[in-house]
């Protein structure tokens, strides 16, 4: 019996890295575009709106995720 | 398509029925958490999933020439009767697990059915035991682990990163992301599973000498297989959606996103690298993983245990039903007819039982967990229903395991009438 451990390990590694990476990047995007909640900002009553830099970074994150989805579709079609 | 015999016609219809059950069995994989986090309304979710299934069926031209992936030796005299018996086994098992609200792999049911029918009809030699271990058993263990670990870590990470953010505001983003990854899962499902049915039909056509060996499936096969799976998906297997979306663990948008992304990644990575993992098991595993990843999150292990039991039973149970069906179908035309009638009766019985406690998309707004029927009892009932007493290939149902629930007891009664 020949078990293809290498392929299984590869699936495991790739899945782990890509999942955690994508979720991380997407979360950064969400963090970048969302307001800091009142408690989080140390008792500030007015919630702080995200800065322009944060916004740009967030959009870059979302673009990266969109590219990943595109690559996914490419994998399905190919 | 002028020389299609009645038998081939029956096989094609049965294959399409299997495709249909496959659709509503597996809607949950892509859409359960999407619905339970409120990213999409139930009806919208299944409509989207159905559309993507249909698109997926047309996308790929890479047809599985060997439907069983080499598990059975398809050149060793696989006749339409065998394929028919295998399909009946797979359909019956799919319907039973659906009745119990348990997500089980439709592919494994199909493999199990084909293996059982082949053993009875051709012999053990035609089954490739190594391949069974390689393609079914190891992936069955590995899939939930891989997806579960990935989803757990991803959930932890996303909660840590988004700490201190307003949950209501981030939820919107998570839901949007979840829709994207659910769409990918649906699309991949359409390409994989609709192709399987096309492969089965093409195999039957080849076996009947209607089309030349190694030919691509004719257009009408592609269209009908795509439509059957999409129709099944649109109908929505609400029972299984309920189990996956609410029964296993309570899913918040962030978890749903992590679980769905993990599932999509694992499915694509595994099919691309060439170590195919079952979609159902990947999705169930990633949902459990997401449940474990949130602080204070709980996984209902009793539900998970029932689900794992169903996974273990899928291959042998579908195989036994198919074996019995193959034994009958080998007796000649009346045997095939009997199997067809019994298959219809059992399916009708299961449907009738399901009507007694219907689960519709409206139920998904309720919180309470519905207790699925005891799978062991259902299995035993199915064996009794499908296997005629003299069929020597089937062992007598082991009674200690069998706590036949009243609902499950109805199936053989309906079949006998």
From TrEMBL, chain A:
Spans traversing the lipid bilayer: 12-32, 52-77
Domain of life of the organism encoding this protein: Bacteria
Keywords, alphabetical: Membrane, Transmembrane, Transmembrane helix
Protein name, entry field: Membrane protein
Protein's organism: Streptomyces eurocidicus
From TrEMBL, chain B:
Compartments reported by the entry: Membrane
Annotated membrane topology: Multi-pass membrane protein
UniProt-listed InterPro entries: Phos_transporter
Gene Ontology biological process terms in this record: phosphate ion transmembrane transport
GO cellular component: membrane
UniProt keyword Transmembrane helix present: yes
Transport among keywords: yes
Transmembrane annotation, as ranges: 7-24, 44-61, 82-101, 107-124, 136-159, 219-238, 308-328, 334-353
Highest taxon listed in the record's lineage: Bacteria
GO molecular function per UniProt: phosphate transmembrane transporter activity
Keywords recorded for this protein, A-Z: Membrane, Phosphate transport, Transmembrane, Transmembrane helix, Transport
Protein family: Belongs to the inorganic phosphate transporter (PiT) (TC 2.A.20) family.
Full protein name: Phosphate transporter
Taxonomic source organism: Streptomyces eurocidicus
Lineage of origin: Bacteria, Bacillati, Actinomycetota, Actinomycetes, Kitasatosporales
């Amino acid at each position: 019996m020949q078990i293809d451990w290498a392929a299984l390990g590869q699936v495991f590694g790739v899945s782990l890295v890509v999942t955690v990476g994508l979720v991380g990047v997407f979360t950064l995007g969400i963090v970048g575009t969302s307001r800091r909640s009142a408690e989080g900002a140390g008792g500030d009553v007015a919630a702080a709106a995200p800065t322009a830099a944060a916004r740009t970074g967030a959009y870059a994150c979302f673009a990266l995720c969109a590219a990943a989805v595109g690559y996914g579709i490419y994998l399905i079609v190919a | 398509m002028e020389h299609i015999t009645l038998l081939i016609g029956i096989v094609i219809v049965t294959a399409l029925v299997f495709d249909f059950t496959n659709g509503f069995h597996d809607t949950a994989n892509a859409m359960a958490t999407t619905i339970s986090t409120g990213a999409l309304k139930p009806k919208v979710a299944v409509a989207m999933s159905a559309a993507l299934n249909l698109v997926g069926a047309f996308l790929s031209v890479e047809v599985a020439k060997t439907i069983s992936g080499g598990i059975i030796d398809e050149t060793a005299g696989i006749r339409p009767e065998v394929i028919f018996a295998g399909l009946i086994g797979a359909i019956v098992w799919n319907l039973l697990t659906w009745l119990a609200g348990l997500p089980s792999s439709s592919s494994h049911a199909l493999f199990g059915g084909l293996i059982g029918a082949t053993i009875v009809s051709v012999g053990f030699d035609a089954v490739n035991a190594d391949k069974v271990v390689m393609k079914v058993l190891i992936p069955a263990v590995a899939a939930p682990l891989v997806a579960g670990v990935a989803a757990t870590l991803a959930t932890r990470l996303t909660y840590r990163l988004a700490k201190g953010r307003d949950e209501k505001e981030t939820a919107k983003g998570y839901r949007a992301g979840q829709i994207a990854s659910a769409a990918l899962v649906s699309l991949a499902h359409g390409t994989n599973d609709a192709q399987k049915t096309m492969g089965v039909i093409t195999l039957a056509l080849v076996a009947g000498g209607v089309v030349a060996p190694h030919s691509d499936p004719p257009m009408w096969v592609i269209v009908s297989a795509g439509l059957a799976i999409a129709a099944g998906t649109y109908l929505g297997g609400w029972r299984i959606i309920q189990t996956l979306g609410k029964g296993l663990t309570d899913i918040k948008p962030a978890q749903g996103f992590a679980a769905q992304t993990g599932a999509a990644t694992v499915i694509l990575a595994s099919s691309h690298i060439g170590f195919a993992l079952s979609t159902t098991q990947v999705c169930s595993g990633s949902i459990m993983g997401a449940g474990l990843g949130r602080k204070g999150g709980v996984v209902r292990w009793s539900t998970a245990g029932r689900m794992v039991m169903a996974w273990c039973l899928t291959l042998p149970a579908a195989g036994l039903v198919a074996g019995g069906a193959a034994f009958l179908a080998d007796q000649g035309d009346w045997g095939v007819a009997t199997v067809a009638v019994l298959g219809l009766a059992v399916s009708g019985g299961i449907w009738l039982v399901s009507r007694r406690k219907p689960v519709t998309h409206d139920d998904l707004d309720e919180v309470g967990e519905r207790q699925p029927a005891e799978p062991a009892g259902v299995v035993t009932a199915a064996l009794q229903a499908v296997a005629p007493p003299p069929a020597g290939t089937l062992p007598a149902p082991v009674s200690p395991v069998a706590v036949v629930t009243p609902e499950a007891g109805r199936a053989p009664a309906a079949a006998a009438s």
